[in-house]
Amino acid sequence: MLFNSAIFIFAFLPITFFIYFYLNKKGLYKEAKIFLVLASLFFYSWWNIKYLPLIIVSMLVNYNIGKMLALYKKRKENNIAKYLLFIGILFNVSLLGYFKYMDFFIQNINILFNTNISLLHLALPLAISFFTFQQIAYLVDSFKGETHEYDFLNYSLFVTFFPQLIAGPIVHHSEMMPQFLQKDNRVKNEYNIALGLFIFSIGLFKKVVIADTFAQWANYGFDTARELNTLEAWITSLSYTFQLYFDFSGYTDMAIGVALLFNIKLPTNFSSPYKAINIQDFWRRWHITLSRFLKDYIYIPLGGNRKGKINTYLNIFITFLIGGIWHGAGWTFVLWGSMHGIALIIHRIWKLIGVKLPKIIAWFITFNFINITWIFFRANNFKDALKVLKGMFTLNGDTINKLKNIYDPIYTIGQYFGFTSKNNGLITIFSLEMIIFAFFITLYFKNSNHLAKEFNKLEKVPLYWYIYSILLLGISLSIMSIEKGSEFLYFNF
What we know:
This protein is an all-alpha fold.
């Protein structure tokens, strides 16, 4: 079930909302939680019910290991606790490795040893990367003695809560579980409803109107075009750069907005990442909860920056290599993670030198590095990536000719205002305008986090908040009625 689908917006969400608060109003607090867990599992199983047992088994195993870890830590039986933690992490990594990486492993074995082992062709269980990392963090915190006594119902709600289940944010138990226990969160809250609907409408607009528009040019450039001239290649790369941003940040806004309807505050996951003036700044702004996980549960346990510069650089590289592999089973993801690891090492060395670049130059270098590395993140293989890169950095006369003929009279007003193009060509007035528009939005507009802070300062919900929400929802829903709803990009990771 997609956030950007009619069945979610007009059926699942309102029904779940009203039944949940009705049960709470009647004092049936435990029943309300049970209902929310069941609704979340129904939401999860909408795609493929055969993977429902997988997430249930995963929760049962992790909950019981976490409970035993907390018990043995209290008894100060650290050796047994370490053994249990190892089993728990091994269970989660094995589960993720089997479903996500087994075919990739077999492919490489076949290439290396000239064998012909049949691929398993396993369908990737939805959200396995997210709920695996989330539960590993819970086990590690249980080992540290940082978790409290939670029953299985509360734990299940922590893992399955449908707004964040499919593609994050990757939430921490200390951020979520206490909220479900607060009495004030059992009643409807006008401010949270108004703010939640507003943020949800922003996210829906980002996804349906902006990201899906860029998708057509990115898909054509990467998957369909045999070769690209200079401008076409840059339109292709920038289209994906903005598609990914508006797609994932749109999903996160929708998740945060929906959670607010239930009085649950999810952590911030984006903070205008394309404003970053260095690569470290970018990772403090992009997919913040993933960056936090990589830092707290991989980089620091590896030794962090405590064992000298060389070990620090190695730990950074390993952390981002793992981050790349987490995103996908392919050598393009390995290269993408490695490039970001190397960039962060270079940034550290640059800071030691003490030379500061003007902000505009620092931003220009950072943004273009991100844009170029996204090519490997998106490309199906190295051949497609090199096709785009070759086009970007090879000037040819075809670019000038296409610019001269950029206006196409067949490009109708209906297509223009419908935010869609039936022209497969990449160089159009609309594609160039959309890229300029995207730069303006990402660099100069306030993000949803800032808007939420402004909203929280208000004593009364103003009428214009509802008007903005209705306007954004109306535009998005009208586009949804024309175009088929598309999945979010991070569903693939």
